[in-house]
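Box S1 | Example of a co-folding query
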Amino acid sequence: MNKTKVRFYRGTHGMGIVISVTNGTDRVIFDFGAPFTPLAQVYDGTVLPRNVNRVKDAILLERIPAVEGVFSRKDLQDLPVISYEESSLNTAVMICHLHLDHMSEIDKIAPEIPVYIHEEGLKLLNALQEVNEEKAYRSYSSFRYHETFKVGQISVTPYFSDHPCPGSAGFLIETADSTIYYSGDIRFHGLDSKKALAELDVLAQKHIDLLIVDATTTSPSEFTGEIITEKDIYDDIYDHLNHSASLGIFNQYNRDVAMMQHMNDLGKRLGRTVVWEPEYAYILKRMTGIKVPVYWIESQHIPECLVNMKNDHEVISVKDIRNHPEKYLIQNSYGNLLSLSDFDGLPGEYFHLFGEPLVKGQKDYQIMVNVVKKLNWIFNTYTNLYSFSHRYPEHLRNMIEKINAVTVVAVHSKHPENLDPVNSMQFFPEENQDYILENGILKQ
Ligand SMILES: [Zn+2]
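Box S1 (continued) | Returned holo structure for zinc ion
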């Protein structure tokens, strides 16, 4: 019988995950994203990717590891990496959700290799391609929660995980001799935490040998220590804006569709119209069918493909908002920051809800804060992106205890040594090294 092999290409000391599980000639790879390192980012908006050489450049820049049998020879050019054509492996790639540290490099995979994304995630990816935010270099396959599919002899079953991105999933991998669970990114303090906790009860029955777990909050630089739920945030915004004469402004990420819906609902509770940039309104319509008002400002950047949204969406003008700031809650993304100058002189409260710029301490984050202060508005934000999007240490212990795997490996954390493995045995793999998994033990 073939033994199951596991290899951690990337993710044992931070974000950007690439892990393979191989049995015989069948192989699954989880995630295919570049590390999230704002200060070491080459493509900073001034340096632009070169399309024809994008695969070779990504490998040279170490945005993606040189995984054998994944890239086409023509894309590798002269790089000494075994290409898809030269490899005998039967490979499929699973993506846990559409945040960039998990999927930014999927367009570089040879088109013959299936790349699986949850059907809701795929819908979002298509919408992002339609608004020119993602490029359509290749096609993708979809999966649904709890529906098992096969990669040769390997079975893959996706489970629901509560992360802000639509279709977020963890994967149960069953080979002839082993059972592995890769959690993807997950939290248990979002509005869907009950559903996420119910999945743990199912997984607890599976006799998992190896648990590969998102351990972001074990890193003190990322976890603020503040325990705040998603609901706490919406309630706080409500308290700030209820009976307030101020204009409300918020900045969130356009891939976090559930949050977009919650902000729309919050507007209703407040009796305020939530007004969206055309790109966000387009994504909301495609994902949920909800048609929301858009704002149209001369200084705002509007992609060509969205210009005709003026005709079939309610348009709110600067004048409307200036006349009654207390009736509006407007979404603003960083690229359109200066369009907020049209509301100077009005009282305002700005809520930074984990949109770009993502992390405090970056130059662009400070520019955003400076502009809000220049307008004499109140700047509000909550915890940080890492704490908001990942499970708190107590929830992490609870998950490890319930799943009760023989071995646990922490990924997506700068400090995996801080993990409390509870009843499992923690293993610290070297990157780019094959391990055999036997009775739940990883060995070289
Ligand atoms: Zn992540």
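DSSP finds 13 helices and 22 strands in the chain. The first helix runs from residue 54 to 60.
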